[in-house]
Structure formats: structure tokens, C-alpha cells
Amino acid sequence: MSLESVRYSRGSLLVLNQLLLPHSSQYEPVTGVREGADAIRTMKVRGAPAIAIVGSLSLAVELTADPPQQTSDLLAFVRESMELLVGARPATAVNMKKAADELNSFLVQEAEKPGATVQGLTDSVVLWAETLLEKDVRDNRMIGDLGAQHILDSTNGRAGVVIMTHCNTGSLATAGYGTALGVVRSLQAMGRLSHVFCTETRPYNQGSRLTAYELVYEKTPATLITDSMAAVTMRDRQVSAVVVGADRVVANGDTANKVGTYQLAVLAKHHGIPFYVAAPSTSCDLGLPTGGSIVIEERPSRELTDINGVRVAAPGIGVWNPAFDVTPNGLITAIITERGVFKPEELKVGLSRGL
Ligand code: MRU
């Protein structure tokens, strides 16, 4: 059975508590929007697509259990819930905000249709959230297959490819299959994956805690490295491509992703290794022209100074802990989406045209 970040059936949502991984795999019920926002804020669930999916499904389960009696109450409840969910984590990742905007305008349009009833509208919100879940898995499979094929085509038929990845972009960060890890998964399914190097991803260790867990679970040939070993690994271990995910890709192809992504892109350029961003169109924010205007989440200093609650840094030292960084488009070979693989400068046109 493949790993699941969420288990959903109508009226029931269980979220895998990622804070307990890799030691314990525990699914916890989320019965409504407040618990959904809490799971996002406390990082029980993380990863841009998974945040939007858990947020939207938490709304769906609350509406199923306690449907509003008036259309005006439904509209207000959905608007306020989405606001709470968007604010649960400072917004470098765009997916939750995009989902909120999409749902609010969809609902207003539906409510204006002649014959609209509060029951019918509530059902359509629940269905909308359920579709998000299904679409994410479908999109990720497409990203995986398109990305794998593109990498194989550009490595001139080399028997097995070696991938370096960062942070966690797998089943745990999405509704399933993963984005950058989806590419790895597809390469493995095609029998063309030689090895994966995953970075530890300091300071929050999504790589060593979560990606390593997924790779072991999937029996993928893989090695964990610290972030500071990336250069020597690229030079000495025949890395064919670096593939990472994204929290927000803007119109010119600049990409925000987990802090440390930018340095991997610089290193890849130095070593002549292609650098790919794998992201669904739900992570693309074509309304922002460049990465300079992306808000970067800053996280508590204890994530750097402490390990498992034990202080390791010298008391009194100042700390800066940005959770993400922006990789400029010039360092990105291509962006792998469910609608095609595009050079950064072709993204905007490519996404509007699609496959
Ligand atoms: O802070 P996190 O763990 O939510 O950050 C996750 C990432 O940066 C991922 O690379 C990104 O969300 C893409 S997940 C498919």
C-alpha cells in the first residue's frame, strides 16, 4: 500500500501526523476547519499541495456534519473558513490561497444561478474539495511521467539516472504520488532509476525525517546527505539531475521552495547538472511577475538552536530562519508541470496552452 498523507471518505478526514514520523505512523481525525487550520499551523501536515487539500477537506467534513440552513450563512462560513485556513501558515506557498479564491468565486457564481438551494450549494462545495484531492494525484502522476521521460530524453539514453532532491515532495506533501518524488517514482517504475541522494534539509529536516522515510518505504535505492555535502556529491557521485518541488512559481519562472533550494541550483549550474522544478499548476502564481515579491515565511529560532528540544546552539547567538528561498529563473533548466515541461520563460504561455 502506498503512503497517504490523508485518508478521506465523505464525512471523515484523517491526517497523518508528520510530527511523529519516522518513529510512529499515526492518523488523527480532523473534524472541521479549526482542527484543519491547527494541523497546518503545527506542521502535522505540510507541503504546499497537502496544505490546500487538508484545508479544503476540513471544510468539507464540517459542512457534511453541520450544513448551514441559509445560503447567506454558507457563503459567510466558507469565506471565513478559507480566511482562517489561508492564515494558518504565512503564505509563501500559494496553493491554499489559490484554492480559497477559486472556491469563493465558484460559490458566488453557483449561488447566483436560478434555482440554487443551500443544500445543493453545500453539496457542490463538498464535491469541489473532493475533486481537489483526486485531481492532485492525477496531476502528480502526469508530472512524474512527463518529468521522467524528459530527463531520460536529455540524458542520451544513459541506463540509470542519479537524482538529487531536497525537502519532501512525495506522498506526504501531496494527495499522493508526489511531485519531485513523483518523478523519482516514475523513473523507478520505468526501471531507469539508479540512485537518489536526498538532503537532510536543515533546519526542519523534512529530508531526513520524511523523504528518507518515503524512500525506504518505497524500497528506492537512496542515500541521505547533509545539505553541506551537496557540492561534493554532485562532483563525485555522477548526479544526472537535481529535481525539487515548489511552493510558488511566478510568471517569469522564479521559484520559491524550501530554503537551500537556491544553493543547490547554484551548485548544479557550476557542475553542469540540469536543475528541474516539479510543480502542479496549482503552485503557479502567474499574477506575480517576479520572485522578488514572494513573501518568505520566517520560522521560530528554536528550529535552529534546538534539536529534539535540546539546546545545541550557544545561548545569546542571533538567529535568522527563513523557511524558503527563491531560485532565479536563470538557474532553472525547466519546470515540470502536469501540462508539460517548460523552460522558465515559456511557463506562462505553456500553462495557458497546456498539453
Ligand atoms: O515547510 P514545508 O515542509 O511545508 O515545505 C515544503 C516544501 O518546500 C516543498 O518542497 C514544497 O511544498 C513542494 S511539496 C510537493
UniProtKB/TrEMBL annotation:
EC number: 5.3.1.23
Keywords: Amino-acid biosynthesis, Cytoplasm, Isomerase, Methionine biosynthesis, Nucleus
Pathway: Amino-acid biosynthesis; L-methionine biosynthesis via salvage pathway; L-methionine from S-methyl-5-thio-alpha-D-ribose 1-phosphate: step 1/6
InterPro entries hit by this protein: IF-2B-related, IF-M1Pi, IF_2B-like_C, Initiation_fac_2B_a/b/d, M1Pi_N, NagB/RpiA_transferase-like
Localization per record: Cytoplasm; Nucleus
Gene3D superfamilies (UniProt xref): translation initiation factor eif-2b, domain 1, Translation initiation factor eif-2b, domain 2
Active site: 247
Reactions accelerated catalytically: 5-(methylsulfanyl)-alpha-D-ribose 1-phosphate = 5-(methylsulfanyl)-D-ribulose 1-phosphate
Site residues (Transition state stabilizer), renumbered to this chain: 167
Function: Catalyzes the interconversion of methylthioribose-1-phosphate (MTR-1-P) into methylthioribulose-1-phosphate (MTRu-1-P).
PANTHER family: METHYLTHIORIBOSE-1-PHOSPHATE ISOMERASE
Family indicated by similarity: Belongs to the eIF-2B alpha/beta/delta subunits family. MtnA subfamily.
Stated name of the protein: Methylthioribose-1-phosphate isomerase
Organism (species): Ranitomeya imitator
Gene: MRI1
